[in-house]
Fold:
Amino acid sequence: MQIIDSHCHINFPELGEDMDGLLKRMEDNNVTKALCVSVQLEKLNEILDLATRHPNIYASVGVHPDNENCEEPSTDQLVTLSNHPKVVAIGETGLDYFRTKGDTDWQRERFRVHIEAAKIAQKPLIIHTRQAGDDTLDILRDQGKGQVNGVMHCFTETLPFALASIELGFLISFSGILTFKNAEEIRTVAKALPIESIMVETDSPYLAPIPHRGKTNEPSFVRFVLEELARVKDLPVDVVAQKTTENFHRLFLNEESA
Structure:
């Protein structure tokens, strides 16, 4: 059985200081690959170094919508950086109206820059959206024009939003939140969606799933998300592992099978 963590931040200090142990725990839990996602350009070299040194670690390039005081990316810059052989996606990008108050025009402009880069580079987008569902979809329809795909990561939105995202060519990725006691609405969404449109992730070092909630999250814990997804969808764990792995390979590696 193979499991893939489709979204993590293993370059963050909470995890980066024990990389050998982290990789060994991944192996022990059948987590065969992980995508280390960029949130600011200043730290990109850390991610690229990890991806270059470890065959099972992949990278993205982008600037998170929460980060205001950081290097602002240009479309050309993102396209150039995405040419690295281990970069498989553009992002983390999107909109977050929960943490950012007041004028959010700069967030929408940054999002458009990432979308344009994804169109040119022909790489999928990794999208973060929080309390900004309508604007996220509107900008994707307007700027993406059906020429981009990707994933809605760490999904916490509604079923209509998920279905609209799938119609636009996006997958839905569930994190450890799926295991939380108060996440019944998210489990309802997961149950309703086709397995062909789903991936699993940790978003580590954050959002550790039950039974590790409150601890530092890491890619090996993604198996608990997978097991909960299998329970919710009433499918065998190995089937869910195979399907979510295939979905990762198809989206990020342009491979039809794992």
Summary: The domain at 3-252 is CATH 3.20.20.140 (TIM Barrel). The chain has a mean pLDDT of 96. DSSP finds ten helices and eight strands in the chain.
